[in-house]
Automatic annotation (TrEMBL):
This is Mitochondrial import inner membrane translocase subunit TIM50. It holds the Pfam family NIF. Its main location: mitochondrion. SUPFAM superfamilies: HAD-like. It is a single-pass membrane protein.
Amino acid sequence: YADPVADLLDRWGVFRARLFRESCVFHRGNYVKDLNKLGRDLQNIIIIDNSPASYVFHPDNA
């Protein structure tokens, strides 16, 4: 269900990548987005997710 939501949010096509569960790490019973694994400047990355547990490593990016 995430792709249709991202499509609505990105009407102008500025999102450069979309990462889903396959890109997460399993941590304490939850799938978590570890942005450090991307090798990109964290100042240029945002997380859009309905589960606070998924961005526990990078709350400032959510």
